[in-house]
Q: What sequence folds into this?
């Protein structure tokens, strides 16, 4: 018996994953073509048999049927290479496992007020099938949206991008959305495998709602002479996300608080605005205040939501009433100045120099049932009557006393009521030695500009007198000469607020003001503040108003025009004069006779200062400019030194050469030509040429040889004696 061996190669067998094949008798049946009377024993070897994982595939040794004992997972092993042996043949087979994919759930956030087609999230499905086949070509779609209406989102079937298709996202109405999405392989065909996933979309908050107050107007009250207390609370309403910056409110006082009495803070727990009183108010000065309050968020309003609101900021009126409180006496003024002289003839001891009475703070009248006493007197200069508040001198004033401060002696006086408990107040006596209150407070500016939406302007005064004859000042409105209704609010020692509660139209208003110093001294002349009311732009600057009156020139403008015309005429005259003067001196040089020397008597200037030096300083230093002229009886010589770059002023009575004339005389001839000396043979008007006999040996005239052929003959004549 001869044994035979054959090998069969079986095509790969595709087996879907995640299916139970254990109940099937076999998944592969390998048939052999040998006669049936021959017995064949089958066996297998490879992955899933005797290699990891073990015993996944088993074979019936008599029939050759291969059976699966477990569920196959393609993600673990995608292909098994199993070799089957039997007595006659050996063959190889491949088992492929197909893939069924799935999508995982996803949490995503999206901002409210999103524009159309705003991308939200991209979904991606994975498929472990062969990338070269349609098994991995996936199409995406949205199965459902919760809530279903309105349909907000769409999904790109190719890229898996989820986008907003309608700009209806409003967190205040719906803050979350749930989407069920599906992916189908085989390019979306019906027989393709599918997987689903869940997307949770949370809508983020933006500042698309403006805050507003619970009430349209508010009112409150404060006690006078109190400060740093809470006045009231106001609450803002906002539909944005609580405790976010889109919800948190900030409160502003738009007007009515020019004196700085109030301020707002925000309670971060309740979002309430807390109105605080920062400075004490005096009922006798201010009884009521009208504030304008505005509220806003920490962040600006969203750009898309801003279009639905008006451009202006809404304000809420807030009225504050100042309550009068029982007060004790007080001194007015707080510092009373008394001028005295240190001359003994003008001062009498034990005589009354002043009376310092306290007043009732509520009525403004002289305080009753009170007693006076000294509180501080460093050198015991004063005494005060307990009942009348009359002050007398105990000592003669001394300007050189060490207790004087800038020429003033300070002492304090106290007043006490007879009530139980007693109320007291303190005032100051300022003894000014020699100095007096001889200046009144004057406004620093009498012109102001006020916007129509504003109600207050600031006025400031100054006084040349020192304390206590200067500030703090007291401002009062004089009804006579005042246009409109105005009130005064003190700001500090030198400045007050002029406020009106009228609706002012654009135009000019005058307010008469009286300003008093500590001693009650005011200027005899009425001081008037001119207030120009105008319409302002967003930068709070006054817009210039155009007047329709006819155009014209005033006397000042006409005078300026005439003055400019006269200046122009003067400039033209100077130019003509300078030109004529230059022409005159040029003609004098060109037309002067050259056949004789200049008469020295006409051109020499007699100084009569021999031995005394020059009585004038030259405009140009000799080291920089030196113009030397040597006058001989027989020749006129000029030597040139480089000049300054600055122009030289022409002086009458002197000769100046222009550039062309100087070049003509000094530069050598460019072409040979016959020289004409028409003065040869004439008698010299100044006598013999023997004048050159006085030239000493140290006078070097060799430079004449460099002056060209025109002057060669002249040089020979002048040096003839030396040459002989």
A:
């Amino acid at each position: 018996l001869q044994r035979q061996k054959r090998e069969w190669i079986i095509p790969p067998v595709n087996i879907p994953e995640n299916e139970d094949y254990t109940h099937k008798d076999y998944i592969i049946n390998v048939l052999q073509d040998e006669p049936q009377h021959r017995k064949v024993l089958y066996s297998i070897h490879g992955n899933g048999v005797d290699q990891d994982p073990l015993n996944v595939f088993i074979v019936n040794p008599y029939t050759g049927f291969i059976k699966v004992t477990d569920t196959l997972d393609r993600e673990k092993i995608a292909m098994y290479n199993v070799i089957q042996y039997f007595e006659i043949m050996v063959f190889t087979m491949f088992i492929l496992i197909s893939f069924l994919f799935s999508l995982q759930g996803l949490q995503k956030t999206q901002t409210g007020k999103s524009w159309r087609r705003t991308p939200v999230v991209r979904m991606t499905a994975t498929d472990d099938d062969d990338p070269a086949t349609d098994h991995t070509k996936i199409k995406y779609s949205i199965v459902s949206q919760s809530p279903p209406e309105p349909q907000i989102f769409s999904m790109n079937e190719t890229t898996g991008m989820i986008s907003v298709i309608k700009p209806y996202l409003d967190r205040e109405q719906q803050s979350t959305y749930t989407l069920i999405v599906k992916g189908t392989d085989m390019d979306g065909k019906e027989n393709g495998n599918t997987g689903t996933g869940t997307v949770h979309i949370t809508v983020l908050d933006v500042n698309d709602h403006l805050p507003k107050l619970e009430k349209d107007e508010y009112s409150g009250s404060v006690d006078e002479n109190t400060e740093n207390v809470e006045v009231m609370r106001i609450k803002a309403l906002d539909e944005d996300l609580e405790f976010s910056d889109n919800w948190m409110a900030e409160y502003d006082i738009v007007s009515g608080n020019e004196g700085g009495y109030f301020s707002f803070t925000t309670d971060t727990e309740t979002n309430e605005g807390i109105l605080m009183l920062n400075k004490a108010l005096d009922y006798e000065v201010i009884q009521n205040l009208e504030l304008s309050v505005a509220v806003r968020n920490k962040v600006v309003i969203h750009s898309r939501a801003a279009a639905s609101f008006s451009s202006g900021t809404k304000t809420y009126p807030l009225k504050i009433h100042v309550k009068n409180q029982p007060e004790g006496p007080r001194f007015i003024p707080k510092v009373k100045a008394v001028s005295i002289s240190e001359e003994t003839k003008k001062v009498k001891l034990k005589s009354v120099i002043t009376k310092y009475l306290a007043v009732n703070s509520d009525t403004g009248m002289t305080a009753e049932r009170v007693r006076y006493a000294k509180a501080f007197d460093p050198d015991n200069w004063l005494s005060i009557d307990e009942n009348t508040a009359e002050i007398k001198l105990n000592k003669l004033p001394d300007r050189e006393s060490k207790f004087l401060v800038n020429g003033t002696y300070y002492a304090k006086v106290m007043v006490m009521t007879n009530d139980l408990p007693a109320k007291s107040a303190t005032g100051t006596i300022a003894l000014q030695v020699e100095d007096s209150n001889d200046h009144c407070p004057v406004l620093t500016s009498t012109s102001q500009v006020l916007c129509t939406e504003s109600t207050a302007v600031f006025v400031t005064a100054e006084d040349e007198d020192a304390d206590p004859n200067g500030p703090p000042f007291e401002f009062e409105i004089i009804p006579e000469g005042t246009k409109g209704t105005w009130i005064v609010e003190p700001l500090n020692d030198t400045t007050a607020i002029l406020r009106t509660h009228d609706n002012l139209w654009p135009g000019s208003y005058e307010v008469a003001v009286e300003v008093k110093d500590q001693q009650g001294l005011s200027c005899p002349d009425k001081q008037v503040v001119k207030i120009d009311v105008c319409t302002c732009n967003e930068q709070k600057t006054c817009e210039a108003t155009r007047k329709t009156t006819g155009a014209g020139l005033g006397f000042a403008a006409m005078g300026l025009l005439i003055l400019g015309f006269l200046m122009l005429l003067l400039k033209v005259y100077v130019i003509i004069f300078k030109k004529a003067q230059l022409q005159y001196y040029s003609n004098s040089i060109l037309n002067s006779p050259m056949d004789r020397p200049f008469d020295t008597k006409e051109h020499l200037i007699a100084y009569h200062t021999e031995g005394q030096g020059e009585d004038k300083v030259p405009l140009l230093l000799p080291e920089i400019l030196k113009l030397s002229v040597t006058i001989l009886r027989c020749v006129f010589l000029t030597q040139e030194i480089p000049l300054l770059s600055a122009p030289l002023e022409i002086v009458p009575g002197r000769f100046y050469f222009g550039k062309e004339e100087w070049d003509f005389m000094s530069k050598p001839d460019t072409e040979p030509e016959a020289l004409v000396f028409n003065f040869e043979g004439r008698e010299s008007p100044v006598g013999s040429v023997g004048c050159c006999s006085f030239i000493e040996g140290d006078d070097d005239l060799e430079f004449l040889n460099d002056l060209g052929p025109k002057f060669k003959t002249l040089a020979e004549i002048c040096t003839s004696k030396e040459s002989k």
Notes: The first helix runs from residue 303 to 306. The domain at 329-433 is CATH 2.60.40.60 (Immunoglobulin-like). Helices lie at 303-306, 555-591, 600-603, 659-666, 712-718, 720-723.
